[in-house]
Amino acid sequence: MQKTFKVTASTIYPLGVQFTPEGLHISMIFEAKTECGILLYDRQHREGIRIPFPPENHKGKIYSMLLKDYQDRACSYLFYQGEELFQDPYAKAIVKEGKYGQKKETLSRCRVSETTYEWESDKAPMIPFEDSIFYMLHVRGFTKHKSSGVKAKGTYQGIVEKIPYLKELGITAVLLMPAYEFDEVILPVKRKQPQTMEEAVASYKEPIISEEDKTIRVNYWGYKEGLYYLPKYAYAYTKDAVTEYKDMVKALHQNGIEVMMQFYFPPSVSHMDMLEILKFWVVEYHIDGFQLMGMDIPLPMLCKEPLFSEIKLLCDKDTNEVPHDENVECYRNFGYMDDAFMYDTRKLLKGDDNQINNFIHHNRKNSKAKGIINYIAKQEGFRLSDLVSYDRKHNMANGEANQDGTSYNCSWNCGVEGASRKKSILSLRLKQMKNAMTFVLLSQGTPLLYSGDEFANTQEGNNNPYCQDNPIGWIKWNLQKSNKELLEYVKSLIAFRKAHSVFHAKEPLRGMDYLSCGYPDVSYHGKEAWSPDTGPASRSVGILYCGNYGQVTDNAKATDMELFYFGINMHWETHRFGLPKLADGLEWIPLFSTQPDIQDKWENSNNILIPPRTIIILGIQKILNYKNTKKKRTRQ
What is Dmax (Cα atoms) for the chain? Predict the structure, then answer.
C-alpha cells in the first residue's frame, strides 16, 4: 500500500483537480483556517487517504499542491476541511451511485474527466427569436411515464427518442429545467429561529424542510445550488452522463432544434463564477442558450461577453440595462419571460372585464432589441389543462397543508372543479385550451409551450409539484389519444405561424400602410370594421393582418394580396363582427376556429357572428369565375 506522496508546490489556477504531465494538480478555496486537503480514493487506497495541503502553499483562501508523478486515471476524490467533507464545485465528472431520489449516506465522489468527444460537424441552428418555438421540459418527467413509448425513460437519451415528435410538432428549441448535477433529496434543516431575510432570498426557489419533518422529499425541479460543471448523472441512461448529454445536444442540432437550459444561482454564487460556468457549457456542451434564475444575475456583464453574442440569454424580467445598438445589425441575445402576458391573457380567457387593451398591447408587443417570450403556462402554476379545470390549487400531496404554491392563478374551471364527464364541460374546456394556444401562437414575440400542454397533460390541480416525482409531475403520453383534437390544432397553428411571417415579424408592427397597398400591417375592428370597442366591458376584438408586410420582411416579392382576420370573442354571448371590405374578386374563408362547426356553416358576407368564447381566423381567396359572374349580374 502506498503511504507517501510527493507533494510539491503548484500554481493557484486553474481551480479544481486535473492531471498534468507532472502529476495531479489540486487547487481549492477554503474558508476556515483548519487543516484542509484532499481525500483521495484509488486502487491502493479504497477507503480513501487524506492528503493535507502544505500550510505554505496558499495565496489568500486558495490552497494548491501537485502530487508529483501521480497518474492514476481511475482515482476519485472529495475535499475535507477539518472533519467536514465536500465535493469539488469545479468537478467535471462524479461516480454515479444509487438511484434517483434515494437518500445518500455519503457524498458522491468526484472524478477527473479527460474524455474527448467527437462533435463531428455539429453546428448551432442559431434560430432568431422571431422564428423560434420554445418548448420547456423536465428531463426526467418528459419520458418517465410508462406511456412515453421510449426505451430510455426519464433520461437524455429518452429526449433523443422523442425528436421525431418534437419535429412533427414544430418545436425549434427545447428549454430544459435544471439538468446540472444536484442532490435531489431535500435534507431537513435544524432551525431554532425564523428565516432571516438573507436566508429567504437564498432559498426562494429551494424548499426548506424542518428537522421535525421526517418525510423524505425530492427537489424534483432542481432549483438549488449544485455542481454546475457537469450534467445530472441520474438523468443518464448509461453510466456516462457527459457523453449522453453531448449526444443529445448533437442529435437535436442535427434536427434543427436548439438546446437551452435553466440555471438557478443563489446569492452565494459570485458573478464571475456564473460567467465561467456558462462559458464552460457553451464551449464544452455546445449549449444554445440559458434561462438565468436568481435574485442577483449580472445581465449587462453576461450580455457583453463576446462568447455569448450568438447565445440566447433569458431572464425572468425585462431590463433596459442590456446594451443594444439599433444601428448595428446583430443577433439578439437577450430575451425575457413575460409573466404579464400570461396573467393578462388568462384574465381575458376567463372573461374578466377591462382586458381588451391589455391583450392588444401584448399581442402586438415586439422589440428589435430583445426577445419577448410569451406563454399561458410554465413550470410554476397550473398546466393549461388545469387552468381550465380548477378554480383553486390542490397541493395537498406536497405535504404542506396546501399552503405552498401561488393562490393567484387567474383560472376558471368552466363550471365544475376538477375532472368531469359532462360533455358540455369537456367541450368548453377544449375550446378554452384552443383559445389559449391561439393567443400564444399568434402573438408577436416568441411562443413557449410547457411540455404536454399541447395534449392537455394534467397535474391534477397541483400548481407547485416541486416534489412530485410521480405521474403528477410526469408527462402522461397516453393523453395524446383522448386529446388528439387539441394536439392536431396546435400542430396546425404552429405550421400556420411559421408559414406567415406577419405573425412573427422581426420588428414591431406599426399599424400603418407604409407599403401603400391599401391596408396597414395590423389594424383593429369591432361590430363595425375599423371601429374596435376597447371599453372596460368589451371582451371582443377583431385583428386584421396584412401578410404582404411579412413577405417584404422575408425579402420576397409581394404580389397577391394576403389578409388574415383574427376574430376574438371571449364574452359569454354571441357577437357580430364587421369584416373589412375586400377588393373585387376576393372573398373571406375560414382557416381555423376553436369551434369547428363554424367552418361547416360558413356563408360569405360582410359580417360574421362569433359564438361565445370562440376565436375564428379568416383568410382570403379569389372568387372562381368572378368575371363571368360579374357579367351575368350586369345583364340582369
Answer: 112
Burial class (CB in 10 A: 0-12, 13-18, 19+), 555: exposed
Residue type at position 424: S
Please state, in angstroms and rounded to a whole number, the distance separating the CA atoms of residues 558 and 219: 53
Overall average pLDDT of the 143-167 stretch: 98
* Per-residue pLDDT at 248: 98
Distance (Å, whole) CA 498 – CA 141? 28
Q: In the structure grid, which three cell numbers stand for residue 493, read together?
A: 397553428
Burial (Cβ within 10 Å: 0-12, 13-18, ≥19) of residue 587:
middle
CA-CA distance, 76 to 65, in Å (whole number)? Answer: 17
Q: Which residues contact 628 (CB under 8 A, 6 or more apart)?
A: none
Q: What percent of the chain shows pLDDT beyond 70? A: 90
How large a percentage of the chain has pLDDT more than 90?
A: 79
β-pair type (209-210, 188-189): parallel
pLDDT, tens digit (0-9, with 9 covering 90-100), for 321-355: 776 666 566 778 999 999 999 999 999 999 999 99
Q: 3-class DSSP state for residue 289?
A: strand
Q: In this predicted structure, what is the pLDDT of residue 554?
A: 46
Q: What is the CA radius of gyration of the chain?
A: 28
CB contact at 8 A, 312 and 333: yes
pLDDT of res. 463: 96
Phi, psi of 122 (to 5 degrees): -55, 135
Question: Virtual CA dihedral for 145, 151, 156, 162, nearest 10 degrees?
Answer: -80
Q: Quick one: how far is CA 438 from the chain centroid?
A: 18
Q: How many Å apart are CA 90 and CA 26, to the nearest integer?
A: 11
Q: C-alpha grid cell for residue 18?
A: 486535473
- Cell numbers representing residue 396 in the block: 395537498
Give the amino acid at 421: R
- Cα–Cα distance, 565 to 546 (Å, whole number): 9
Cell of 184: 435531489
Give residues with Cβ within 8 angstroms of 221, minimum separation 6: 138, 177, 178, 205, 379, 466
Q: Which of 628, 576, 629 is nearest to 605 (CA)?
A: 576
Which residues make Cβ contacts (< 8 Å) with residue 168, sequence separation at least 6?
A: 491
Alpha helix (H) residue ranges in 146-240: 156-161, 163-169, 197-202
Could you give phi then psi for residue 93, rounded to 5 degrees? -160, 155
DSSP 221-250: S--S--EEEEE-GGG-SSS-HHHHHHHHHH
pLDDT in tens, 456-509: 999 999 999 999 999 999 999 999 999 999 999 999 999 999 999 999 999 899
| 3-class SS string, 342-411 | HHHHHHHHCCCCCCHHHHHHHHHCCCCCCEEEECCCCCCCCCHHHHCCCCCCCCHHHCCCCCCCCCCCCC
What percent of the chain is helix, strand and coil (3-state, nearest 5)?
25, 25, 50
